[in-house]
Amino acid sequence: MFDVITFGSATRDIFVRSKDFKILDSSEFVTGKGIAVEAGSKLKVDELIFASGGGGTNCAATFALQCLHTAYVGLVGDDGGGREIIRELQELGVGTAFVKVTNRAQTPYSIILSAPGGPVRHASQGDAGGERSILVYEGASHFLNLQDIPWEKIKKTKWFYLSGLAGKSAKTFKPIVEFAAENGIKLAVNPGRDQLGKDLDILLGLLGKIDILIVNQEEASLITGIDYKDEPELFKKFDELVSGIAVMSKGAGGVAVSDGQKIYRAGIPKSDYIDRTGAGDAFGSGFVSVIIYGGTVEQAIQFGTVNATSTIQQIGAKSGLLPKGEWGSWEKAEVTIT
Question: The whole model's pTM is what?
Answer without folding.
Answer: 0.92
